[in-house]
Amino acid sequence: MVNCRISSDLKECALQLWDHRWELKDISEALGISGRSCYCWRQIFEEFSTPMKPPSPLIGRTRTITRALLMAVEDLFATDSDLFLDEVCTWLAVEYDIIVSTSSLSRNLKNAGLTCKIL
Known about the structure:
By secondary structure, the protein is mainly α. Helices cover 58% and strands 0% of the residues. Helix 1 runs antiparallel to helix 2 (24-31).
């Protein structure tokens, strides 16, 4: 069973059989799994109290423009609404030491709901 998803029930069953003194060879034959998988599941179970690893919290790239920066840009537009995007990019570079392209800034402002019509 190479590269297939194994249910948590089957993993728990294998670990329980192993706890009841079954041989890994017998568990492997009965459930159609590898003996090495049992060792991995045991290690995961000891760490997380479940044979399934929790999903990784690190998904995707980290955001360059955070919500706090978007609020600062919104405050900047509140004081001077005639700014162009390249001027805001320069302001972010000087004030916050963040280099961002005008297209990225435009996309982030649009996703945050900060359009020129609203500002």
